[in-house]
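Q: Start with the shorter request: fold the first protein.
A: Done. Sequence, then structure:
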Amino acid sequence: MLKIVYHEDYLTDYFTSAAESPLRVKAIHGRLQDHFLTVAPEAASVEDILRVHTREHLESVQREGPEVYRTALLSAGGALGAARMAMEGTPTFAVIRPPGHHAKRSSYSGFCFFNNIAVAVTSLLEAGSIRRAVIIDFDMHHGDGTEVIFRENPAVDFIEVRARSRERYLGLLELKLRWLGPTDIIAVSAGFDLYVRDWGGLLETDDFHYLGYIIRQAAENKTGCRCFALLEGGYFVNDLGKNALAFCLGLSGEPPSVTCGEPDDDAGIWPEP
């Protein structure tokens, strides 16, 4: 059964942008809490952060103020907790804030301070718990921080999809999942801003269910069901909860009511012109 990671301190009201507000995690947890068990995380340690980021980076986040620093440590801690539960074969979704996939080793941007998914995956690699990991990022914005951090690391494969139609997007992701090589865990940067009423204007609610389900199937086939997802973007708060629930239902193994056509294997995995 899928579990969720959440802490009330993610509602801390610091300011980076009107778009990235506490209402996001409140809406999601409010929708998920009646369906899945909630586990409260502990904050990441300084040691956890320094596996990925420079000390200068950590100190610059500290200078943003105590509210930002504490919440960012707790967000990274939520990612670590989700990864550990995933290693036990329990798919997990962490409803964390701030997001992380834009944070690089020594800089931060896009509402992200520490790269939560990099902190979690690096912790597992350095502990020897895993030898290989796949990171899937379906946020509408490029996960530039995650890509840069792992660019020279052959133990981590980074997957994104860019397409102009929902059918092609879903089909290309399914194709990439089919092509996955051996891996020990699948980690997901889950952004819901590709939603039709959000900035991306592409995916329907049912499509997030489908995303969760095909990722779950890939995890079952490749890892013994070791997979976890972390909240990144998603700013249309009115529907954010139902979209996250749809994704989590798929990740929990509930089959979707819709499927999508698959591209030919020789169609390539590059963005449409």
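Q: Next, the second protein, separately.
A: Sequence, then structure:
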Amino acid sequence: MNYKRVSSGLLVGIAVVLVGLALLATTTGLYDTGRLLRYAPALFVLVGLWAFVTSGFRNVFGPLLLVVAASAAQAVTLGYATWEQVWSLWPLVVVVFGLSLVAGAYKTRTGTAASDDRFLNAVAVFGGSEKRATSRSFRGADAIAAFGGVTLDLRDVAPADPETPIRVDAVAMFGAVEIIAPRDWNVRVDVLPVFGSVEDTRLREERTHDSVDLVVEGFVAFGGVEIKD
């Protein structure tokens, strides 16, 4: 079974549709779905766990944040906690975000040598960051934007292994990540969007091969990830 074909973004959409249908059934008087809606947050817990699995546990921050937030909402709807108690724990989001920055820096240090340009780590917090990769044996990048913007230019790179796609882990919270990629690249996107957008706006061009050149994974909340040319 190739579970990679079911993206976390698709599952978020399905979960939202199911919640919407349940609300519609209640508001139109067709069926009282109040009891079912109490368990709606559990759907998003499952989506977050699925995102963990499909990313091979490389994408941590986004799925973890979704699981924590949905679990907190589920605890409130079942009467195990109040919104006031949950809100008092909001600094945990800052802690998790900081840990994701540390993990990204650690991965860069341990995955490549200090002078190696096969991997990029771009972070923008209340600012902007532009990185251009030129390595002919490029492996991937981490891009994190929080209240800022990150631009990654990959037009001059070549993969380290032609059989292995380049991987970019993108996290955008109240910010934007732009990835500039050649038009003839096959790009697979599996970014978890929560009140955000993910789009490939490159002009369409006939692909000369079927293999995947670039995989973009990550998380978006109140922001956007765009693949452009």
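Q: Describe the second briefly.
A: The beta strands are 119-125, 128-132, 140-146, 149-153, 166-173, 176-180, 187-194, 197-200, 214-221, 224-228. Residues 165 and 213 are 5 Å apart (CA to CA).
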